[in-house]
């Protein structure tokens, strides 16, 4: 497990890059997985990582597991690789929409201020 200072920095980084609330993320995961004829149960909607991010958002820092910490590092790194956090442009193409949707599955909406 990470030391206290490292965990504090990770917690802050994670909550900086995950700019969707747990309610917004849960709704997005349900919408993303719904199709014309079926919709998954709320607890089964979305990717495993998206579900894990949602679970982390509902925890206190003191309740984090080693697996939570691993996912938090993964999310911070992935969002950091895909996003310029200082100057995020609006999507203009289908590829941009696909990128936005991938980021939203991790809890980051690039169009959210």
List its salient traits.
113 residues, mainly alpha
Question: Tell me, what's the shape?
Answer: globular
- Pattern of helices and strands: HHHHH
Query: How many DSSP-defined strands?
Result: 0
The major β-sheet equals:
none
Mean pLDDT score? 83
Question: What would you note in describing this structure?
Answer:
It is a single chain. This protein has 113 residues and is mainly α. The protein has helices spanning 4-17, 22-33, 48-57, 66-82, 94-105. Helix 3 (48-57) crosses helix 4.
List the helices and strands and how they pair.
Elements: H1 4-17, H2 22-33, H3 48-57, H4 66-82, H5 94-105
Condensed summary:
This protein has helices spanning 4-17, 22-33, 48-57, 66-82, 94-105.
């Amino acid at each position: 497990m990470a030391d206290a200072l490292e965990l504090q920095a990770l917690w802050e980084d994670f909550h900086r890059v995950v700019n969707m609330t747990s309610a917004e993320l849960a709704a997005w995961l349900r919408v993303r997985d719904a199709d014309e004829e079926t919709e998954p149960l709320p607890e089964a909607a979305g990717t495993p990582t998206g579900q894990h991010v949602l679970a982390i958002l509902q925890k206190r820092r003191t309740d984090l597991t080693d697996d939570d910490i691993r996912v938090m590092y993964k999310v911070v790194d992935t969002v950091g690789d895909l996003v310029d956090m200082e100057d995020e442009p609006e999507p203009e193409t289908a590829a941009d929409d696909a990128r936005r949707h991938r980021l939203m599955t991790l809890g980051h909406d690039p169009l959210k201020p």
